[in-house]
């Protein structure tokens, strides 16, 4: 992990929250009894930050200094608001392309997806504040720096983001095997948002119920699934193929 993304100790973490730094995740010592730590947890409740309660050995591994029972991962990038980026994309691009990540948890998959998204001209990547992979040094490295060149939006709820995209005239398409349609049956020539699901369970059922379309990838071998970053690349390049014709 890139140490530059770590903030540790009660006062440094409290100051990071006060300064409104984007905190991806907090590791808190399990069983710790300290009113100051409890106050930090209360402050974090308003930010939807993921809090992991871990043994002290985990904190010692993350940080060799005196962590005082708390280590925070600070995002190395700034995030943009969904409303601003959608308005900007619709104003500057006739057919913007958005990518929505529904609980992608592996940082290397996340980084690889960001790299492909940047290469295919995605207008913005939309992620949820809680439950997804943190933006750490590993993410930056795997993205080959693409993370600094593509807008990323953090939203409270993926469903609300999808409703907003739909209200803005953007077609939403979920990547899922739970459909007979393939990506080659979908018209991607209009403004589109592609929703990719988590490595284990795919796009959540509640999201599948509200999207405009669903699409799968043909699988001709014995294995019935693809790595999510590979599948995402196939979807994005089908969009590019259609739009170049």
What this model shows, in words?
- By secondary structure, this protein is an alpha/beta fold.
- It has two domains: 3-74, Ribosomal protein L30/S12 (60s Ribosomal Protein L30, Chain: A, 2-Layer Sandwich); 82-244, SPOUT methyltransferase, trefoil knot domain (Alpha/beta knot, 3-Layer(aba) Sandwich), CATH 3.40.1280.
- The chain is 36% helix and 20% strand.
- It has nine helices and ten strands.
- It has helices spanning 10-18, 35-44, 56-62, 82-92, 107-119, 137-142, 158-167, 205-208, 228-244; strands at 6-8, 23-29, 50-54, 70-74, 97-102, 124-128, 152-155, 171-175, 192-197, 213-215.
- Strands 7-6-5-9-8-10 form a six-stranded parallel beta sheet, sandwiched between helices.
- β2 (23-29), α2 (35-44) and β3 form a beta-alpha-beta unit.
- α1 packs parallel to α2 (35-44).
- The protein is elongated.
- 39% of the residues are buried.
- The mean pLDDT is 90.
Highlighted features:
single chain, 245 residues, 60s Ribosomal Protein L30, Chain: A, Alpha/beta knot, 2 domains, six-stranded parallel sheet, four-stranded mixed sheet, 36% helix
Write the layout of secondary structure elements.
Elements: E1 6-8, H1 10-18, E2 23-29, H2 35-44, E3 50-54, H3 56-62, E4 70-74, H4 82-92, E5 97-102, H5 107-119, E6 124-128, H6 137-142, E7 152-155, H7 158-167, E8 171-175, E9 192-197, H8 205-208, E10 213-215, H9 228-244
Parallel strand pairs: 2-3, 5-6, 5-9, 6-7, 8-9, 8-10
Antiparallel strand pairs: 1-4, 2-4
Helix pairs in contact: 1-2, 5-9
